[in-house]
Amino acid sequence: xxxxxxxxxxxxxxxxxxxxxxxxxxxxxxxxxxxxxxxxxxxxxxxxxxxxxxxxxxxxxxxxxxxxxxxxxxxxxxxxxxxxxxxxxxxxxxxxxxxxxxxxxxxxxxxxxxxxxxxxxxxxxxxxxxxxxxxxxxxxxxxxxxxxxxxxxxxxxxxxxxxxxxxxxxxxxxxxxxxxxxxxxxxxxxxxxx
Amino acid sequence: xxxxxxxxxxxxxxxxxxxxxxxxxxxxxxxxxxxxxxxxxxxxxxxxxxxxxxxxxxxxxxxxxxxxxxxxxxxxxxxxxxxxxxxxxxxxxxxxxxxxxxxxxxxxxxxxxxxxxxxxxxxxxxxxxxxxxxxxxxxxxxxxxxxxxxxxxxxxxxxxxxxxxxxxxxxxxxxxxxxxxxxxxxxxxxxxxxxxxxxxxxxxxxxxxxxxx
Lengths: 194, 213
Fold this sequence. Notes:
The structure holds two protein chains of two kinds. Chain A is globular, with a radius of gyration of 17 Å. In chain A, the strands form two sheets. Chain A has a five-stranded parallel β-sheet with strand order 5-6-7-3-8, with helices on both faces. In chain A, strands 2-1-4 form a three-stranded antiparallel β-sheet, with helices on one face. In chain A, 32% of the residues lie in helices and 26% in strands. Chain A has six helices and eight strands. By secondary structure, chain A is α/β, with parallel strands linked by helices. Chain B has one domain. Chain B has nine helices and no strands. Chain B has helices spanning 2-22, 26-43, 50-70, 74-77, 81-87, 92-121, 127-152, 157-181, 186-211. In chain B, α3 packs antiparallel against α8 and α7 (127-152) packs parallel to α9 (186-211). The interface between A and B is medium-sized, with 27 and 24 residues.
């Protein structure tokens, strides 16, 4: 599903990724680890289509509307409510039965009561939950998750554990984390950046 | 095509809703354009020609538009929200068109106040001037939005946008002033319409490359 050959990405004169070879089959789960600045986020942004490679080839055999990306930022408008943010993305992704799907996700991630509040009033953990709702809204086939557990409390992290386990049989994952043990039971493959 | 227009409507509605909530852009544009006209009113020597006054109207319009354009991608720049839009499966030019529509709406609101204010301070507004302003607005928003997206990716974004936008706005000023002051405005209005068409096509086609990192 994801195939990289001699993949490279530079920013100015800095080579962040150089000569990367990668194969992630459909249904695979690749755990990406490494220290800060090692290129994890750059790889995830390349796979999500937010960056273009400066060298080599990258093939992601999934249409854009089947990719779910969770980055460092929640990518929600702070002056819109949780409901309005998800409705915006639901319309753009043409999510069938949008309102029901949004309601189900808000309920599942414990945001239903806060659905009519501006995202601006959310704590960092609530924003991360809302970002997860946004990422999962269109039931993606490929999930590109950059530090998905960050800012989540124990309850939120356990919720995400269950969500990942539930999606594991039918989705492909590329997940970057500083806490690999948390997801290692789900992830047979690991890519460690130096 | 229907899906494309639906995406444009969704994105433009989002921008209008954000503006209604935050009131960050339109009040600033209104205040700026009225203040500029007041300053011009006192700066222009008594007995100055109508031609000079019309020229100043166009200066006020271009700089008011620049103010709106400077804020066009603020929400997307902060917290990298542009990523959320780029990830969506809609045609990326829909983002440009929706943002242009939103900026056009803000500019029209500013002009609804500015044109009567101009009539109050200087002289009456004729149909050719209104037509010129309407056509100029289309070109300004089409070009300005793509330049605003370009500028927002750079570090010196507040400097970059005026440097990119003002040279490209010169034909708009030429066409607009021409339409406002001549007895036969058709040629100038045609020029503005041609500018709109050419630069709208260029902006539409280039937006994807502008936002690709």
